[in-house]
Amino acid sequence: MSEKKSFKFPSAFSILFIILILAVVLTWIIPAGSYSKLVYNSAANQFVVKTYQKEDQYLPATKESLEQLNIKIDLNNFTEGTIRKPIAIPGSYQRVEQNPKQPQDIAISMVKGTIEAADVMVFIFVLGGMIGVINRTGAFNAGLSALAKRTKGNEFFVVFSVCVLMAIGGTTCGIEEEAVAFYPILVPVFLALGYDAIVCVGAIFLASSMGTAFSTINPFSVVIASNAAGIQFTEGIVFRTIGLVLGSACVIAYLYWYCKKIKAQPSFSYTYDSREEFFNRYMTNYDPTTELAFNTRRKIILSIFCIAFPIMIWGVMAGGWWFPQMAASFLTLTILIMFISRLGEQEIIDAFTHGASELVGVSLIIGLARGVNLVLDESMISDTILAYMSDLVSGMPITAFILAQLGVFIILGLFVPSSSGLAVLSMPIMAPLADAVGIPRHMVVSAYNWGQYAMLFLAPTGLVLVTLQMLHIPFDRWVKFVLPMIGVLLTIGSILLIVQVQLYT
């Protein structure tokens, strides 16, 4: 009698492939539609109104033009470059010719999505190569041994510190995408301290996402959403700050509970069955019984590696950097490390290519996720979903309206996983609905933040599967771990929205 096979949850690749097929099916079911979009042409200092299958309309870049289009956004937000993406024009939605995708478009979108994600993929390859070179020098091994000695008995302090830094990074500059760079260095640290893969994701992805959900001054979400809503981003910042403190405290408390559990009983770990494979992958060069000297050269190498991250954050926030510039900065520092390492030429090349090759799967996941987004965009169903949702919530009683907005942005977050993209698409449509029920527009901005990120904790088209693939964590284990925190986010968000309704009505 044959042994019955146990069910194994699909991999990240299979999940995204299934979602891609479902996206193609949806293009046959959901009607196609489009809002007219407003684009600012900085070279000509004029507005361009783009409407589906119509000639572009050119308007002077003036306040009067914005009023004519019923767009309540400060002109400076366009002329100073704060808003660069096309803005949906209220009241301009129209049904358009259906553009369903065919079976052959599945493979085409996968290829096109990978091409579009080339900048992110290069960044990841450079990061992997950098890690490979540093591993070959023994710097990580020596540093981990030193850290394990210093933190013995206070291991959770490292988790606490990383959570605080990630939450601050999330609320100030939305550091989630850039946080991919932190896994290769912090994962071995957490493993050396006796924790598992879930703790790594919790301290980095979960904490940074909670910080981004309760963004205070993040230019890529709350600032651009407020500008698109026609208000100052400082409106509602007190409530967002309260949410940030509460949400971050809950993440830290949850991780403390989980860390205490797996320290007392390792089998409690949600990834216990894959612990050996995970440890072998990330701790190949780490042997706690063989202590490498943490000499000056290795300290310098680790210092250069650590310097890469504040440089990256500064570049994104102040220098206008994106993935090509970040990749170039990491590559520059990698070359510097190569010279300091005193490794042979062939040894350096082998280490770099081996490190980069280990992240090929992660890079392909990014391309596949982009392919899903391409299918939804090209079939023009995202605007239809937005139009339907705006009609659904308009005219509701105040409390029901703002909680419904929270639910609307949960759904929209699945179809438009980009925070800035969803902001410029939805805010000109959703924010004016707040005027009709007599509440401030910043409440809709808050609902956008909290609802969208509740979905992005799970949305396969966002960063979740990239992270899980990098750490080889099955999606079902992540769902089990993160659901309580999604409940916390939505509970805190709902209470804060209801409190604001009471205050402003």
TrEMBL record:
Pfam families named in the record: DcuC
Stretch forming the signal peptide: none
Subcellular location: Cell membrane
GO CC annotation terms, alphabetical: plasma membrane
Keywords, comma-separated and alphabetical: Cell membrane, Membrane, Transmembrane, Transmembrane helix
Membrane topology term: Multi-pass membrane protein
Main location: membrane
Parts of the chain that traverse the membrane: 12-30, 120-144, 156-175, 181-206, 213-231, 237-257, 300-321, 327-344, 356-376, 396-415, 422-444, 450-471, 478-499
Protein name: C4-dicarboxylate anaerobic carrier
Record organism: Pasteurella bettyae CCUG 2042
